[in-house]
Amino acid sequence: MTIQKMALIGTGVMGMGIAQIAAQAGLEVRLFDAKAGAAEQGLAKLKTTLEKLQAKGKMTEQQLADTLARFVVLEKIEDVAGVDMVVEAIIENLDIKQSLFKQLEGIVSSDTILVSNTSSLSVTAIASSLEHQDRVAGFHFFNPVPLMKIVEVIAGLATDEQVVADLLELANRMGHFGVRTKDTPGFIVNHAGRAYGTEALKALGEGVASVSEIDRILREGAGFRMGPLELFDLTALDVSHPVMESIFNQFYQEDRYRPHPLTRQMLAGKKVGRKVGEGFYQYVDGVKTNEAPRQPIPVVTDFKAVWVKADRDEDAAILCEYLENNGITLDSSVEPASDSLILLATYGEDTTTAALRLNVEATRAVSIDMLTDFAKHRTLMPSIATEKSYIDQAHAIFAKNGHGVSVIAESVGFISQRVLAMVINLACDIAQQQIATASDIDKAVKLGLGYPHGPISWGDVLGSDRILLILERIYANTGDQRYRPSLWLSRRARLNIPLLHTSVI
Ligand SMILES: NC(=O)c1ccc[n+]([C@@H]2O[C@H](COP(=O)([O-])OP(=O)(O)OC[C@H]3O[C@@H](n4cnc5c(N)ncnc54)[C@H](O)[C@@H]3O)[C@@H](O)[C@H]2O)c1
């Protein structure tokens, strides 16, 4: 069936966004809201938006007139009769959505598609008391709908395959990328999104680095558009903390999704983020006022020789070339000389553990994170015993030519390593759970969360063997189930085949 006539129930932020892209794609759109005057208001606001688009030359006058002519505001819900599809975008409450769907079933024909824009409720549960559950699906858009070109098409237990196909086709016609997903907590995007924030919170809670430094490392080093803590401030903890708790609990306390007590406490203290002027940062008129400046670069005059030990030969080569180019003497002996700076490029461990494993003195050891782009940002991690003069020397060496350097406290696996390994591992596990195809997960998360790569292909870009090594070491060093590698990732990394590879069976 080609869907041509749509009814939209709930004309709030999401409903009107969906209405806009539907009408622009040529569908007839009927609007209904329980609150008197809300649909008219929604339409008036949309008219202003479309007129602005027309003024900017994004649509012709004719297109504007045609688009607006496709809307009808309904007085009563019974007038949805005769449409091909009803989209529900009302309040996020299971009981209320269930009774609306029951009411709709009494109005529309048995093959009219009924979809919910729910972001956290089970589509199967929404449909559960209906007679014809096969025509119910989730159609989950992201805010703002016209700009976020992704929609999750959620198949509940009873959803007909043809309904999924019709919705994927409609998504495409509306200029959105439709991804098919199973009806599971958080679907794809909100599920995959659990890794970034929770791991950053864990590192913050361990005192690894300050709020500003964690955000800076993940922006400058790993390439995320926003740091995880500033992102929490933007989304606001009254929205994101309950989502973290809900997904964790819906997956029966799976450690990979474990939230952090810090955000619960901040929520209790009403420090929920930018909208109230205080969260992880403070804000005046929405502008951050207390981001910490870069750590000052120490003045060092007497540079000792540097002894380099790396897990990977490629990393050792990059570091040695950099040191030589910057006039630093390399200590090339088998064992470090008695006063050399010991530079370790390791994965998934802290500097104390690395120094003990390599049998070198922790008092002169500083580790450097080589997972992320060395040319963009450098994270240094001394051991708890490293002497200040050696920390200062490493800092001064790597900050040459204005490079961004962050010096962090001991962390099992730096910050970028932990966070990226968790992001990649979680996405791989979503593929392992067959919630969606690996390539759909990759595209959905990139579009839905704005990551610089899809989280599965990111693993291939960085090397799945490295990601596996990070996870295995962190897991071994902490004993925390959270870090156990997904079978999806470990099988592919060990066979040296792409993480996007899908098996025949
Ligand atoms: N806001 C987001 O970022 C976002 C993203 C994805 C999904 N969602 C989901 O979309 C849905 C709508 O969210 P929103 O942010 O647009 O909410 P909103 O508060 O902006 O709009 C909801 C609208 O529904 C109306 N409404 C409430 N109960 C109704 C009922 N029984 N019958 C008819 N109309 C009713 C309200 O009057 C209001 O106009 C929710 O399920 C939400 O979880 C929201």
From TrEMBL:
EC number, UniProt record: 1.1.1.157
Pfam family, one: 3HCDH_N
Protein's GO biological process: fatty acid metabolic process
Ranges in coiled-coil conformation: 36-70
Domain 3-hydroxyacyl-CoA dehydrogenase NAD binding: 6-184
Top EC class for this record: oxidoreductase
3-hydroxyacyl-CoA dehydrogenase C-terminal domain mapped to chain residues: 186-283, 413-493
A GO molecular-function annotation: NAD+ binding
Record key words, sorted: Coiled coil, NAD, Oxidoreductase
Protein name listed in UniProt: 3-hydroxyacyl-CoA dehydrogenase
Origin species: Acinetobacter equi
